[in-house]
Automatic annotation (TrEMBL):
Any matching Pfam family: Usp
PANTHER family (UniProt xref): STRESS RESPONSE PROTEIN NHAX (PTHR46268), UNIVERSAL STRESS PROTEIN HP_0031 (PTHR46268:SF15)
Family the UniProt entry places it in: Belongs to the universal stress protein A family.
Residue span(s) of domain UspA: 9-142, 149-285
Protein name: Universal stress protein
Positions of transmembrane segments: none
Highest taxon, organism lineage: Bacteria
Length: 286
């Protein structure tokens, strides 16, 4: 079973405006859970042109620490949550994972890294690297905070990783409207007709879905209210359309799922979905 609500939440921030939304969401969740918010900034190099020629000395590195700490304190000022700040150096993804381990955090929160020209998620970015690492659940925030998460969709291929994703979603957000979403990809990508679609959907509900629920223990109340949506086609298009049409706040995905035609929850797919989904995304690794 997944662990309950986290005692600590790590926020990875580069102190830019694009991290305002992750900060707001991390603070909202920390407040909801009465958890500590650990804000981490990783110094990779000089942030201002006048520091570029002086970056290598210990004295100037200390100045950078002070400036970053001061800016981080301003970011946290006024938040009605227990908060602490950390400054680290080196590789960003490794530093965030290390901060989560040291603080015992049950969630990492970060924002999107996107190409300003193409408007797309950047492959090889720190967010993508975190999505592929074995870390606590990773929440990638895209949207403004308009309140607690309400509608939650868990993508499933009926594997154990998607079971863990479901359990984690229910543990983090009890009482929310939760939905399992399965996208069936037919052999050769052929779209079945209406009669075949209904037959496939009923077969999935009677066999794979029923076996999944038997093997995936969840609280009784949550199990009774859980519903399954089965669609046909590539996950990127079907889930994105479903999110837009149904005002979904959060999509939850597991990693290391099945391979082959039925597999949708491989780590690479979870990373690729970051570029498609118009909502926040929670990636559950373990």
């Amino acid at each position: 079973m997944a662990s309950g609500q986290p005692a600590a939440v790590v926020l990875g921030t580069d102190l830019s405006a694009r991290c305002d939304r992750p900060l707001d969401r991390a603070a909202q969740l920390a407040g909801e859970w009465n958890a500590e918010l650990v804000a981490l900034h990783v110094l990779e190099g000089p942030q201002e042109p006048d520091l570029a020629l002086r970056w290598s000395t210990d004295e100037d590195a200390g100045d950078a620490d002070i400036l970053a700490r001061r800016e981080l304190m301003r970011e946290l000022a006024g938040l009605e949550v227990r908060a602490s700040l950390r400054i680290a150096r080196g590789d960003v993804a490794d530093a965030i994972r290390g901060a989560a381990e040291e603080s015992g955090a049950g969630l990492i929160v970060t924002g999107m890294a996107r190409s300003e020209v193409l408007g797309r998620f950047l492959p090889g970015s720190n967010v993508e690297r975190l999505a592929r690492m074995d870390t606590p659940p990773l929440l990638v925030v895209r949207n403004r905070v308009r309140g607690p998460y309400r509608r939650v969709v868990v993508a499933t291929d009926f594997s154990m990783p998607s079971c863990r994703a479901l359990q984690q979603a229910l543990a983090f957000l009890p009482g929310r409207e939760a939905e399992l979403f399965h996208s069936h990809l037919s052999p050769m990508g052929i779209q079945p007709d209406e009669a075949a679609t209904q037959s496939i959907r009923q077969g999935i509900e009677r066999s794979e879905y029923a076996a999944f629920l038997d093997a995936c223990p969840v609280p009784e109340a949550a199990g009774q209210s859980l519903r399954l949506t089965v669609t046909f086609g590539p996950l990127e298009t079907t889930l994105t359309r479903h999110v837009r049409e149904n005002d979904v706040d959060l999509v939850v995905m597991g990693t290391q799922g099945r391979s082959g035609l039925g597999g949708i929850l491989l780590g690479s797919t979870a990373a690729r979905m970051l570029d498609w989904l118009p909502c926040d995304m929670l990636i559950v690794h373990r």
